[in-house]
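pasting for ref
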Amino acid sequence: MTEYFEEPDLSGNRGFQSLREGFYKALFFSFAAATVLTTIGIFLTLFVDALGFFRSYSLVAFLTGLDWSPSLEPVSFGVLPLVFGTLTVTFTAAVIAIPVGTLTAVYLSEYAAARTRAVLKPLLEILAGVPTVVYGFFALVYVTPVIDFFFPGVSTFNVLSASLMVGIMTIPMVSSISEDAMSAVPDSLRQAGYGMGATKYEVTTDIIVPAATSGIVSSYILAISRAIGETMIVTVAMGMQASIPAVKTADVFGLGIPFVHPGEVFLGSGQTMTAAMVQIANSDLAGGTIAYESLFAIGLTLFAITLLMNIVSNVISERYREEY
């Protein structure tokens, strides 16, 4: 005798639930669209106002000029000194932040005990919450005198102290994102390495770090992008005098090898693109003048550099991303 059992209706009444899910979808989409539209709006604002500048000043002269003096006669708007100052600070900061941040992430992820990690990681991330103007004054008041002890005659406002502080500021970004990427590597890979007789150091360097390469490299690019856009540290500690050192020639075995003296690069004052924008915005230059419109040309250049860095970050992340 076969008994008939009615199959239960597991779908239920989804009318209200579907309406609610649709509302959530529309809400989240509106937030994402607002972010994209904000970025587009910033770009269009910079682009439209920069066009007014390039109608009065040559784009080629702007990109290749070696002198930046928007308020002194004769005016000159060569952006290369600003780009040079920005890149000098950025890559000097990267030399500090990348190795220190990566090694810190390795320690927190692979060597530190759980209790130690729970204390050290929040303390490290406090560095990211310190106002950048504090870093700037610290560089000016404390770091510069130390540099002057080793290199007498260093300028009060100098590139080296600003670069050191920007590097320290970006360490938490590198260490935090890299540590998250390493912690996301499955423990099964670690156990497999130990099962093959590998030491902890070998597992870390040969398995964990390569598996987390995508996140680690992304942290590098994001930290560099953050350093490029830094404003207050370089404004307070680096000075407001745009300059680019002269290229000299050294006679080596009868060959003229061009070089730039490091002291002229790091021990003197300089100016970045962000600091130049602050200087123009706070000056008495009237709106609508070519000097005022140069602010938007600098902003557009900085926007393009930052966008390029983020595109590179996404490409690298997709290229080396591991899925488990």
